[in-house]
Amino acid sequence: MVRKIKLMPDYQCYPLWALEEEEPANLNPQTLPLSLETVWRLEDWAKMFDSWMDWDAPTSSSEPSVKAVVAFDVATAETRIGT
């Protein structure tokens, strides 16, 4: 059976989510049959998203710059296709 897994960021979570569950389950990429390079890429991608939050004052977090959003979108595409 092929697992359905969604690539989706959320603050302080792994970026992979199992979709077969009653509720989406957060998956640790290190527990999946992925190459080390792919795991690193996923971890870096999640860290990029997390960097937008001011953890000392979350409600004071500013929106990321257009440049940061574009870089994140490019990283998203590269993560999806594995380039």
Can you describe this structure?
It is a single chain. With 83 residues, this protein is α+β, with helices and mostly antiparallel strands. It has one domain (5-81). Helix content is 37%, strand content 11%. The protein is built from two helices and three strands; from the N terminus they run E-E-E-H-H. The chain has helices at residues 36-50, 66-81; strands spanning 5-7, 16-18, 25-27. A three-stranded antiparallel beta sheet has the order 1-2-3, with no helix packed on it. Strand 2 and strand 3 (25-27) form a beta hairpin. The longest helix is centred in the last third of the chain and has 16 residues, at 66-81. The two termini are 26 Å apart.
Secondary-structure blueprint:
Elements: E1 5-7, E2 16-18, E3 25-27, H1 36-50, H2 66-81
Antiparallel strand pairs: 1-2, 2-3
